[in-house]
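Hi F.,

I've been meaning to write this up properly since the lab meeting, where we talked about keeping a consistent format for the predictions we share between groups. The idea is simple: the sequence comes first, exactly as it goes in, then the structure tokens exactly as they come out, then a line or two of notes. No screenshots and no reformatting. I'm using this chain as the first example so we have something concrete to point to.
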Amino acid sequence: MVSQLAALEQPLEQLQSAVGDENLRQLRQIFQTYRKAINQATEQAVADPSSAMQHAYRASLSYLQFSQKSRLIAIEAGDKAAQRNEARDAFIQKHAVQNAVVGGVLVLVILVVWVILILRITNRLFTLTSALNALSRGEVTPPELPAVYAITQQRVSLMGDLARAVLSFYEANLARRKAQYDLGERIKEITCLYDVMNLTEDVNRDTQEILETVVQRLPAAMRYPASAAGWIEYKGRRYGSGASGESLSISFGGTPEQPDLVGVTYLSRLPPDAGEPFLAEERSLFEALAKRIANVLSRKQAASALAQVNRALRTARECGQVLIHAEHEDHLMQEICRLAVQTGGYRMAWVGIAQDDADRSVRPVASAGFELLYLESAQISWADVERGRGPTGTAIRERRTVAAQNFLTDPTLAPWRAAAVERGYGSAIAMPLFGEAGHCLGAISLYAVEPDAFSAAEVQLLDELANDLSFGIRTLRTRAAFNASLAELRKLSLVVEQSPNSIVVTNLEPRIEYVNDAFTRNTGYTREEVMGQNPRLLKSGKTPLATYQDMWQTLLAGKTWTGEFFNLTHDGQDQIEAAIIVPLIQSDGQVTHYVAIKEDITVKRQQEEQLRKLAMAVEQSPESIVVTNLEAKLEYVNNAFVRNTGYSREEALGQNPRVLQSGNTPKATYLDMWATLTEGKVWRGELFNQRKDGSHYVEFATIAPIRQPDGHITHYLAIKEDITDKKRMTDELERHRLHLEELVAERTEALDSALQEQSALFEAASVGIVLLRDRTVVRCNRTLDEMLGYAVGEQVGQTTRIWYPDDTTYAAVGQSVYERVNRGDIDLAERELVRKDGSRLWARMSGRVIDLNDLSKGMMGIVEDITEERAALVEIQKARAAAEAANRSKSDFLANMSHEIRTPMNAIIGMSHLALKTNLDNKQRNYIEKVHRSGENLLGIINDILDFSKIEAGKLSMERITFQLEDVLDHLANLVGMKAEDKGLELLFNAAPDMPYALVGDPLRLGQILVNLGNNAAKFTDHGEIVVGVEPVAQTQDQIELHFWVKDTGIGMTPEQTKLLFQSFSQADASTTRKYGGTGLGLAISKSLVEQMQGRIWVESEFGKGSTFHFHAQFGVQKNGSVRRMFTASELQGVRVLVVDDNATAREILSAMGRSFGLAVDVAQSGAEALRKTRIAFSKEVPYQLVLMDWKMPDMDGIETVRQLEQAHSTHAPAVIMVTAHGRDEALNSAEEQGVKVLTVLTKPASPSTLLEAIGDALHKGTVVETRASQKADNHGQAMAQLKGARVLLVEDNDMNQELALELFEQVAMEVVVANNGQEALDVLGRDADFDGVVMDCQMPVMDGYTATRTIKANPALQHLPVIAMTANAMAGDREKVLEAGMCDHIAKPLNVGEMYATLAKWVKPAVARQQAQNATDSIAKEPYSTRAEGLFDNKSLPGIDTRFGLATALDKAPLYRRLLLKFRDSQGEFANLFARARVDSDATAAQRCAHTLRGTAATVGAKGVQEAAQALEQACKHEAPGEQIDELLNAVLRQLEPVLQGLRTLEGEEAVALQQPALAVDGEKLALLRAHLLELLDRGDAGAIDLCELNVDLLRAAYPAHWKKISDSVNNFDFEAALALIQQIS
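Output, unedited:
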């Protein structure tokens, strides 16, 4: 139609001569307006129907104006023709007399001709006038039209022009009719689209009703509605007519094979002049309809999928509890089926086990739901036969989840269709169950009533349920197998070879069983003197305690330990030894002996230390440092020079510094420099130099002469700073200034243009705009008039009183508005206004004065109708309140669950930590270590859950502490390395050489991100490698941005799959989830953590080739962070190294690290190539001094290559570092078995520091001055030493936590007073405020920790006392709540012992007097008389108590265990009465708390039967069970408790124990010291007297046999005065 309008415009140009220039200009202007309105209406017909209607209305007005103008022009043309005729008649009459004589003869002829001419002209004018009148009346084709066409052929220009004008009017009339027809069609289309949009907005309509109604509405939008029939095809079903004919269809979903379509069909033949069956506008309409239908169906499908996911989530949550408590495999499977039906709402659920019989049948072992003998008749197989192609058989056979979404249509379900339909099954899904080594055990199958019941999200959750069930089955089977058999132990004798280094073999006690000759030479001891002795006889006391702790922790884990000892020789000389201690592991995995290989490095370390300090300052300088001789030849350059210039040291040394000249430095600069240096002075200035690659840079140089002691100048020292960036910034600022001036000029021009557009925007604005003066409307736009119901311009001149309901409101608003706007502020408020008809509306109004200096100019106001918004806001506020209430409930639940879980976790981790510090046999230590690790793993899971909760709540906080990046990478290697090693993968670290490792940030969260990405890489990679890289991106003086990446060679992902990442509970696709497991939560948490580190995370992946996860993060840089080096890189300058590895990435990383140390590195990709390169190097007399040899290589492994290398060069073989991604011990053992001696092993992933350590060891250049482990151990030891003698008040209501805290505090010689709740703590402080700190639990009866702390801080005398929270609360905001209450810090349960001591040491400062007193008695307490448990309970039978378990809990301390037993007897002897009183207590939780106390104390002493019965009673009280059930459970508790109490009543007193033990000789000197200290403590009422008596119980009992019982009772009952009097009475 647009092209037709352009064609209609062309004839207008032909009318110029007939209508004149002015008329033609007006016609053009009107036609242009008409065409513009038609174009706008057509363009916006689909996008904005309301706007299109407005443009169509404007087009109609323009068309009418054009028609009227054309008619006026035609009439005007006729009038002009008549005037010309009258003028001609007058001319003839005027000259008739004059010509009468001359033309008399011709008069008659002329008159006749004239009459004929007049008749013809009149006839033609009549024809034209008749045609114009007919066209004006609306006739389409007037009968005069042929005559008009004939007139246009006449040569008389006037008549022809008039006829052509009539024809133009005719053609314009046709165009108008065509436009009116097209406009009507567009209105039909817009109306149809509007109706469909309204219809689909109704959320209560179902899909079928919506589609049927849309089909009925479609024909009315077509050109020929009578013969049109609409239809929709959706999921194989057709809505509407299925007849054939001319059709138009648009897809809105489905599949290529079965698309979803919306369309229309003409049932009869179209008119001949119809043209194309369907217009482009109609096709656009159907495209818009398709998008709308697809959007609506998508929303409905999403709602249905959400309901399905909720069903699966409920099932998974309940099944998780069953998995935790399951004891038997059959019971587990039956419970899972039951919960799937009861909780999940599935019709039927069953578990089938795959049989290996001839038919490969599937045997049902558990089922639940509406089954009706379905499984007995199903005869399901997992073979590839007809009855094996259903979901269950296919899932087992193909080891994947199979969903059958419709029993009626799925052909694979034909054998079971009738039975399934009879029982109401609509769809089914089967998930395989896997045993050990990926063996498929069978499948769990679920049946739903409705078809298409299983969405992708629900399938993913059900996959996780199946994986959990598989894990549960495997765990139960493994547990049974483990309990059925234990590996037998046997001991093998190992022979120690002679070595130039000291070699010591010890047993596990440890006692020395063998030393070599080197040991006797180095230490001065003979074999006879050391055999059977403990190696500690060599201790000097200078080796940090953390070194021994790390050594034993490593050895007990079965790993090789490397470190240093500061020992003493026989003659008392200090000796530094580098030691490698290896546990000898038998074939059954048991450790029988330890072998220590030690090298005396005393002299070497002293020399290296001096050299290291000197070189470190120069090499680590960020500025270029150059030393030249007097001939201006370079003799030394540092690393910064190499980086800044691009010249290597080899290229630079011996050169003249002029090699750097660019020619841009003024000659006068050099003259001034040499003149200054010649005078022996320091010169400073700028040099414009050139790098090796030709790039220019600017340096600020300081050059000073170097003088010898005699004053003679021998060299020049230049220190140069690269100031190129500073220069560049200055130039850049100038360019920005010029650019800013250009922008100002452009902006000025733009403002001029904007002023012209402002008026148009005023009228076109979608909000009301008004100009007011003295509250009178001066001008307003159409929108405001329509909003308030006034005609356009009707409000002008009226006051704004018409907007308000009454005078009071009008006055109040005026005062409020003008107070603000007259100050220059913007008035912004929401007010209720009144329309002209009296109805009300809510409007958002903003106003501002035009000119603050001239208020008479008035103010501009903007009025926006927000009536609907206000209504929606009310609903949103209601929904928000409900959501906030739900969120608070969830947060409270998580906080309570966290506290409930972390409280027992505190005892598990803390007690196992203490137990590991006691003497245990191997089996016991193995069990306790597994308990400790499992507790820490469970704590990690709990922390992940809390992290996700914090992220949801927006309260995840990031720490900002100093840390070493190496520690984070070591932690990553420990966690991910084992998984990589199990799958045969290589884990590699690729760190940039210039990486700063001393950072400030949150190491825990950084490690969490890296471990998550590393675990994902290990999970999805079956072969190849995993590379973890890090490099700096941008760095300032105190801030750095790091780029981390984790690259794998795994399965990779498609671009579609990568879009699903970084979303909660999402993974790449369902198949990945089924095969590899996981919830997809880790990447979402990682994304949140990275964003909090001011970074971003992304992934690059190629399907089948692997993935690379990248993230950037911001960190601080430690100002005093030291770089750990053993020796300077200059010591390695020129050392030739050969890197041998079949993995290209590993070769590249190791070689790059070596080159960064200054090594000359060559590489080889196989053993054969390494041997060849070695021979060539020897032949050219440039042999390799070091070989980095990979162990596991194809064809020829590293050990065989080393063997051949040693044979070929037996006397000058290079040093070898064996590099392996497997275990160090495994590599050493393999080398030993093949007769190859390997002294240094480097495990992958290697960091720059570990590689440097290995090089130093191999080249005998020493080891690291101080490792990270020793640094952390030193800090730990310092914290423990700082707490010695401190007196603290422990406020804790839980007995177990009291005992644990007491034991940990006593280990560092702290004095502890215990209070059971906040009120008791206040009472204690009221009597005795002499404490160095308070350790406060938060949740306690009577008075909680928050209230107690506020009360303490409100007391001026106690404000200085530090209060430290120790609580299991770890939810978001708990730390802030602690600080708000006045506590100074927070210790989380379960306890991390090192962090606990560090936190306490930070705040608790022991009084000087107490610390000195403690130091004075250390010698007494260091070696107490025996408090061990040997023999004390061997012959004692305590019914219902596992004394072995109880002793282990008490750290094998018999007095402590005896005290716990007696405390249990005394506190729980009246349990029945205590529980009865608790049940009627006003506190609803009193009974639950009473049972909880019994459960905890029974577990502590080993009364397991009582513990289990009390736990059942506690749960019943917690869930408010009926009274009869509680009575029954109470009787069960009492049945278990009574024999325990009866046995404890017969427990022998301490006198009997003393009689059973042999009499001890009393050391008079030690007794005197002990007595003096004890009297001092008793005299001042110090509770430390209790601990001192416990530590020295045997000595005191032997010294005071007749009085000890009274003394002990008095001390334990805090009757210090009576105890003091008793001791003083004894002479």
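Notes:
The two ends are 127 Å apart (CA to CA).
The chain is about 50% helix and 15% strand.

If this format works for you, I'll send the rest the same way.

G.
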